[in-house]
Prior knowledge:
mainly beta; Immunoglobulin-like; 17-stranded parallel sheet
Amino acid sequence: xxxxKRVLVTLVALTxxxxxxxxxxxxxxxxxxxxxxxxxxxxxTYGVLASTxxxxxxxxxxxxxxxxxxxxxxxxAPTGTITLSGSxxxxxxxxxxxxxxxxAFSDTRVSVALPVELGSTTLTSGAYSGGTFGMNGTLTxxxxxxxxxxxxxxxxxxLITAASSQVVLINxxxxxxxxxxxxxxxxxxxxxxxxxxxxxxxxxGTGTTTTIDGQLIALTGAVTLGGSSVVNDACAIPxxxxxxxxxxxxGGSTAVQTTNIAAALTSNGFTKSGYTFNGWNTVAGGGxxxxxxxxxxxxxxxxxxxxxxxxxxxxxxxxxxxxxxxDGGTTAPQTTSxxxxxxxxxxxxxxxxxxxxxxxxxxxxxxxxxxGTSYNFxxxxxxxxxxxxxxxxxxxVTFLGNGFDAGATAPETNSVAAVLTSNGFTRTxxxxxxxxxxxxxxxxxxxDGATYGFTSDLxxxxxxxxxxxxxxxxxxxxxxxxxxxxTPQPPPQSTPLGTIPPVAAPVAAPVTGTLQIIKxxxxxxxxxxxxxxxxxxxxxxxSNAQFSxxxxxxxxxxxxxLAPGSYDLSETPTSGYRGVWSGEITAGGRVLVIANQNVFVxxxxxxxxxxxxxxxxxxxxxxxxxxxxxxKTDPPPATTLRHTVTGGALPRTASGWADLCAxxxxxxxxxxxxxxxxxxLIRE
Length: 684
């Protein structure tokens, strides 16, 4: 068979071209973007997983978003210092995980052969195989912008990396998509950086300060750590953006939307006069893929959507407003061809509130429209005003006993003028004298059973008048005892027979008046007057008499007999309170005692402390105490008459800040003294 030289040359050229192409395909980096990753199953949560044991000669750390578990197929617990973010699992689930890892190890792929040395090499997505893998330098894995790119390395023998060698990911490549199938054992050099799921048929060993971004799994042997950091992170899901185009809109906007999971599209915000929005499309003219407003998109890739518009025909329609029982005002009909706000209601109706519109007069089974709401004017419409009766306003009168000791008067609520509830309070030794808007009787007065308009809420305080007290044994005026010289007496004379001896004129009893004092404390937050003990000093100018102290019980007051004249009353100041006088007394505390008359005085203290609880008045069980003050024949004092009436301690409803600070300072001084003494004892 003769073959021409031209044909022979052509065959040789074709053979050479085919051989070159095969070599280039075999030895050059290849891109396998469609290569699926290995399925790790339940082993995916383990940072370190071994069949026979896990040890760490130096402290190691296991963590990661995919799982920081450490597992051993047998019952031998890991040894050494290992810090893990997950769980330590022996047998059981670890055996299942080893089985799943073995399935991934046995998953073979069509691969491209690689030389033994992987250092100084750049590879793209794909499956690669070879003999003994070694790495001295840097292996670069290029994702070419695809975060789902997968890299699979398979060797029938070992993987050995030199100290400080490393695997580097670029252009979107992720460690979760890198897999190593090692036929026997893997040895990772000190200070090296390894990427991916390393599955060794036998065992794995690492040097000091080795970093693994992935997993270490020994199917039949052990994992020995020299002091390593294992980070088992899950794959990051890339985000994608949908951009919305108004497509000839003349108003509004719609913001771009970015996410990495399926989600509803952002609702349209564009507007176009004379048009209605009709969804989105991937083509401006509407020839692409359509998406409804707020439709769902997978966000697996970037997308541009164009608004689609439908022309609104210029048809004019009228809305007619009917007052429906109104008695004033008007609302003109409204005519237009575009969507617009309805004319605001102008009708009025006495005793009613406007409650919107409805398509039927009764408002039942019709369509309701709020005042000023938008209507599309796509058809004529008649709207009827809806009315709600305005209920009369209710107000309450609250009755306060103001020092009562029995009974009750319930609050009264009404919306129209009515007779006030009759008083039900009682107070021993007092007569009820009507109501007053002020606790001290300085406000407006209301008689018992008076009529009130109930136009606002009101608090009324019971007003009491002391029942007149029978005359009290008076204290005779104190006359200073002065030394006197005996006066010579004339000799007795005989009375002539038949004459009547003169009778001496009777001496008039001393004339006095009475002073009644009662003390209350009023809580300024609740307006409740509480009977209280007290200490009152009485001074009369120009007198050198001295009286014994008189004690009164809190809430019952005290009655004192005093010679007619002017007296000054004062109270010992008490922290946290402000006191005022009321009754038959001046603002400065001066009272005038008149012969055979009773003077009534009230001392009121206002609680100045904040946050006090409401004070409940204690019941008054006994009538006021009446005390006759006996005179004393002590030598005349150098000062004016001073009479102290003591009635006990003023009630406290809270501790002032000054008291608390003083108490805290005392505790600090005690503590410092104790520490000083202890220090001296220690030195001795």
